[in-house]
Structure formats: C-alpha cells, structure tokens
Specification:
By secondary structure, the protein is of the alpha+beta class. The protein has 11 helices and 10 strands. 49% of the residues are buried. It binds flavin-adenine dinucleotide.
Amino acid sequence: MGARETDLGGLLREVRDFAAGPLRDWGAEVERTGTVPVWMWRELGRRGYLRLCAPTSLGGRGLPLPDYLPLLEEFSTGHGSLRMIIHVVNGVWRPILTYGSGEQAESLIRPLLAGESAIAFALTEPGSGTGADIRTSARREGDVYVLHGEKHLITFGDIADHSLVIARLEGTTGATGTLALLVARDAPGLRLDPMPESMGLRGSDHARMYFEGCRVPVADRIGAEGQGLDVALHGFLYPSRISVGMSCVGLGRRALELAVARARERVTFGRPIGERQMIQALLAEAATDVEAARQLVLWAARRWEASPPAVAESAMAKLFALEALQRVTDRCLQVWGGIGYFRGQEIERIYRDARAQRFEEGTAEVQKATIARSLLG
Ligand SMILES: Cc1cc2nc3c(=O)[nH]c(=O)nc-3n(C[C@H](O)[C@H](O)[C@H](O)COP(=O)(O)OP(=O)(O)OC[C@H]3O[C@@H](n4cnc5c(N)ncnc54)[C@H](O)[C@@H]3O)c2cc1C
C-alpha cells in the first residue's frame, strides 16, 4: 500500500487494537521467558509493521515521519524489546537507501522489511567516545578491508544477519576517514559475544563484537570512504532520535494510564487515593509532560521532513522526551505505592525499560552538547 493510498485513521485504529491486545500478551510472554521468539519478529513483518516508513518502491508503505510517529506511540505502550524491533527496522533501511547502491538497497532492504532478516547498527565502543572518537580500524587490502577493534552494547548484534559497522581508515583521527561497512555475522575474523542481561528491555539481544583481522569486501561499504559518520548521523541517528522521543511518549502514556487506574481503585483511609490533591498533582504533572513531549516530537518530525537533518530539533525532541519520561515513570510508580516496585507489575517493568532511553542513540548530555553547538556555532 502506498503512502497516499494508506488510510491513516484506519491504520492507527488497527495498530491501537493490536497494541492494546496481542502486543501486550506478547510482551508479558517476553518478560516471563526472557526471549523474543522468532515468530514474533516474523509476525510483525507479516502484519506490515516493519515496513511502515520505507519507500513503496522497495515494498514499504512510505509513511512520512509525522504520519508514522502516532503509530510508534501505540507500539511503544507495549514491551520495550518489541518496540525496539519496530523502531530499529523502520529506520535502519534509511542509511542503506541514502548512501548505498541500488543493488545494496534491493538485496538488503526487502528481506529486512518482511521480517526475514535483521540489520544491527554498530557504533559504540568500550574504549572510546561514541562518534568521531571511534577507534575500530579498517585497512584496505585489494578488494577487502581488514578490521581490528571492538564494539559493544550492539542491539541484535549477535542475531542480525548483518551489522552496519562504523569504523575508520587506519591512521586517521576525528570525523575524517570514517567509513560504514556492512559486516555479515559469519564474516571471517568476527567474534560475537552476547552481553549479560540488562536492567530492562528483557529479551532484547545485545552483543560485543570483536574484529580480529575481520575481512569485509570493499563492495559491502555503504557510501564513500570518509562518509562513515554521515551514514551514522544523517542516515540513521538524526531521524531516529525523533523516533526515540516518540517511544518515550508511548511508554510514558502507558505509565500514566496505569497510574490513573490505580488512583481510582486504591482506597486508603476510606477514600480512593485519586481524591487526594497530592496524588492528583502527580497525575497532572505526568499528563502535562507526556503531552508536551508528544507535541515537541511531532514538531521536530515536521521540521525534519521539511528540511533534514534538523539536527538541533531532533536533539531537543529526544532530550525533552527522555527526561520527561523519567519524571513520568517516577511519579506513576509513586502513585502505585510499594506493590508497584515488585516484579510482575507492569509499572515496574516500564520503570526499568524507561531508564534505557537515557542511553539509546545518544545520551541527554550528548543532546545538550548538540543543541548548544547549534546555538554557539
Ligand atoms: C539498551 C542499550 C542498547 C544500545 N544499543 C546500541 C546499538 O544498537 N548500537 C550502538 O552503537 N550502541 C548502542 N548502545 C550504546 C549507546 O548508544 C551508548 O550507551 C550511548 O551512546 C552512551 O555512550 P557510552 O555508553 O559509551 O557512554 P560514555 O561515553 O562512557 O559516557 C558516560 C557518561 O559521560 C557522558 N559523556 C560522554 N562523553 C561526553 C562529552 N563529550 N561531554 C559530556 N558528557 C559526556 C555521557 O553522556 C554519559 O553520561 C546501546 C545502549 C543501551 C543501554
């Protein structure tokens, strides 16, 4: 279905029903078992939820960011690991289409959108800063690059068919000399190690990647030598930060729904706690944060769509939304009282999942530095 043919209202109703129904049950299963079964990934693909943004020429629905985000808000009311799949797949095609060849786009993006293959995004390193400071090196030898270095915290790193690895040409420093390579999971010289279980996002796979003379065909480079950070930032991270902002809105909204329900039901000293002004203030502040974050994120999405890369706008949206989410989940857990702190309560899981947003695709500190740079030049 093409963007213009898509009945957006109908799609939003469909996704809302899915998120409030099957997705919540799937989330409970993921939380219980600690894994996301392959069938869930495939089913998201079968339902078309992994091809919402990609262009129609490659089998996507071609939704612009402002039309996609209300759908992502609904998905984000569910489990963090399932939201992560939808968020990553609906964005990771972008750097391949923008910077890769037509052949790379055809062969990689179609199976990705169908949920039949996965691509991880690998930038972060244990021994350097995230961005122009990366150290993983690539030396060209004929028609291959030979890689040395290490990445960690890479979502889907150990299960994805390919990783989009941001490295640098041996001997270079700073932003120049960076390059982006699609590295197959079975590339010679690549060793993968699963990360320990994380605080939240239970069921999400994260990996350490060791490049020990790893050989990658030059034909698998995305973009030109020197464009690695452009591929990462312009291709993926700038629009993705806006999507992470909406992920915060959806998760915060679900926390608020649970807190409102609890405030109505829980009776102390003869009255529902929702009748106490102090509880009402917590709810009112949380609701205001959710709405303010939603509007800022949608504004950034419109700005990005009209004139990308909207660097400062995407950073502002992510910064406000992730900090709002921390306030919202803290207040909503407070409304729940002590029982909300225990495993098995949805609010407890949301509180843990929310904390990951302060790291995903750039910390609050990095967003502030980006905004300040746009102010000061
Ligand atoms: C659940 C999860 C999933 C992730 N998935 C991926 C993934 O798929 N791919 C990927 O590449 N990465 C991934 N990451 C990594 C994530 O992007 C980084 O954790 C994040 O960018 C911060 O980098 P760091 O961990 O190296 O922190 P550090 O760089 O060690 O930073 C530590 C602290 O110092 C601050 N800081 C660092 N440098 C500066 C500076 N110059 N100025 C001011 N403050 C600074 C940071 O904001 C932070 O508060 C994931 C992380 C998590 C938690």
